[in-house]
């Protein structure tokens, strides 16, 4: 099994000291609220931790909270979450049975030149690496059979900086090892982030959505 990327993304960027050594998901969520593992906490409204059942067989990993998620404190409550919920149902996965989270737990954005609009910015590799201990702790608590990475940031968090969605999507892969320990014993399936469907041109949107459903169908087959 391939060795995963190193957990420390650089000096001053590391959430590991904030991750509790004992307790379940609730203890992780409570501790994550005070995480200062990278500078993103300074501007974000709050930490947005994962949501769902501790016994979930499938974990869905997105990029980072968006504007609505940052305000409400829950992952995938914005437009992309609606796309994901619909696609999961069509692929044969009950959304209520899944655990959803993000590779990065704070909203990264820049303020629009005019008005109050907050414009999403993709996390960099140092921020992704700094936040990885939270994701690994979630996976070790849940021990899912399948992990689905949604988009490049989630894929890079678990598969390394060379990950490209187009090269790896829709294929069942073993979960990588980090410091000699697998995050879980299950499999990983990569696909696009549902926001990519929303960003697609109208002429390409149906095909983009069908591709997402098809990739999620691979995960559904692994769960059967």
Automatic annotation (TrEMBL):
GO molecular function terms noted in the UniProt entry: 4 iron, 4 sulfur cluster binding; deaminated base DNA N-glycosylase activity; metal ion binding
Database matches in InterPro entries: UDG_Type-4/5, Ura-DNA_glyco_family4, Uracil-DNA_glycosylase-like, Uracil-DNA_glycosylase-like_sf
Residue stretches making up the Uracil-DNA glycosylase-like domain: 49-217
Pfam families: UDG
Example of a GO biological process term: DNA repair
Keywords recorded for this protein, A-Z: 4Fe-4S, DNA damage, DNA repair, Hydrolase, Iron, Iron-sulfur, Metal-binding
SMART domains membership: UDG, UreE_C
Family, similarity comment: Belongs to the uracil-DNA glycosylase (UDG) superfamily. Type 4 (UDGa) family.
Protein name listed in UniProt: Type-4 uracil-DNA glycosylase
Lineage: Bacteria, Bacillati, Actinomycetota, Actinomycetes, Kitasatosporales
